[in-house]
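User: quick one
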Amino acid sequence: MYRYLVFGLLIGLTISIAGKGQDTHPSVSMPKDFTSFSWEVAFPADNKYLTEPSLSGWKLEYRRMIKQNLSLGVAVSWNAFDETLPTKTYSSPGGSRAVTTDMIRQVYTVPITLITHYYFNTSMKLLQPFLGIGLGGQYAENNTYFNIYQLTENNWGFVARPEVGAAIHFGQNSPVKGLISAGYNWSTNKNEGFDIDNWSHVTLNVGIGVGSF
Amino acid sequence: MFHMKRILFSFSLVIVIVQAGCLKSPDFEELSTNFVVITNTDSSKNFSNFKTYYISDTVAYHSDVVTDSILNNASSKQLVEAVKQNMNALGYTFISKGAKPDLGINLGVLKNTSISVIYGGWWDYWYGWWDPWYWGAYYPYYYPWAYAYSITTGTVIATMVDLKDASAEQQFRVVWMSVMSGAVGDNVNTNVQRGVDAINQSFKQSPLLQHK
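Assistant: Done. Structure below.
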C-alpha cells in the first residue's frame, strides 16, 4: 500500500515542480529524438508469489517529439525477481491436501511498450518534469524450484506502465540528458500453478540518454 | 529513416541478449535436501470410526533392477516403524492382518526409475506391489482425488486403505496418501533418515487423521 502512496506523492511532486517552473520563461527543451538506457529497480506489488525486489533490471527506450510537449516512442524493460522461501507446509482449506517443501521462486518480466510522455513547461535549468505511460505486451516467465523439481510457466500479457519523472539537463542544448523516474507496471500475466491472475511491480529508474535536436 | 533503423536494430539486439544470457541460474545450494511431502486425505471419511490398522514389515520396492520387488531389512523396518509410531500417537491400535483391521497401510519405495509422471494409482498393480489380493479381495483401489506425481529418483509412497467398509463399497478406498519424493544419495542411512523425516512430516500435515 505504501508503494501506491509513494507513487501518488511522486505524481504530486512532479506536478508541483512543473507548476512552480511555469512562473517565468516556460519552455520544453527535450531533443527531437532521444534514446536512453536506465537502471531499473523493481518492487513486487500485491502478489503472494514473492516479495524480494529486482535490482538487476534495466530499461531501454526511444522517444520522438511530435509536438512541443509531447513525445511518442517505444520501450523495453527487463526485470529479474528471485526469492528463496524456507520450508513451509501449504495446506488446502480444511486440511485435506498439503505440500511441505522449501523452494526458490523466480519471475522474469520483459514489457515491450509504445510510450508517450507529456513534458511540463518549466523555467528550471536542471529538470524537465514529465508524465508518461506505456502500453503493450509483457513476456513473463515464472519458475519454481523445489528439491529436484521445477515448475515453469511462460506467457504473454497486456501491460500498462504509467510513470512520473524528469530529464536532467547537463548543459544548455546538450544532447546528453539524465533520466529519473518512478512508475507502476501492471500486467495480465498469469501464474496458474499459484492461482495468480496478474502481476504488478513498482519501478524506479535512473538512466542516461543521448538525443539530437 | 536511418535513425529509425538504428533504433530498431538496438532493440532487436537487446532482446536477443535478454533471451541468450540474462536468465539467472538459481542457487540450488540454498535448497534443503529434505523430501518434498505431498499428502491427500479423504475429507468425506470420519477417521474417528477407524480404531485399528495393520502395516506389513515388508516394503514394496521398485527400481531399474527388474528383480527388485520387496524390501525387508533394517532400512525398511525403520520406515515401517516410523509409520507405526505416528499411527499409535494418533490413537490407532496396531493389530494383525487376520484380526480384521479397520485400516491397511501400504508402504512402497521407488528408486532410480525412469518414470516422469504417475497418474491415477496404477503402481498398486505392479508385480510385487500391493495388489488388492494382499488385503483379501480383488476390489479395485479407488482414489477420491485426482493427481499426477513426478517420480524421478527417490520416492516413498504410503497409502492408507479403508478395509472396514471395503465389502460394502466393493472397493479399497484409499483414504490417505503421502508421496515423499526427492533426490537420494549413495549413503543408505541418510536416505532412510530422509524417508523417516518425511513420514513424520506426512502425519504432521494431515490433521484429518486425528483420532478424536
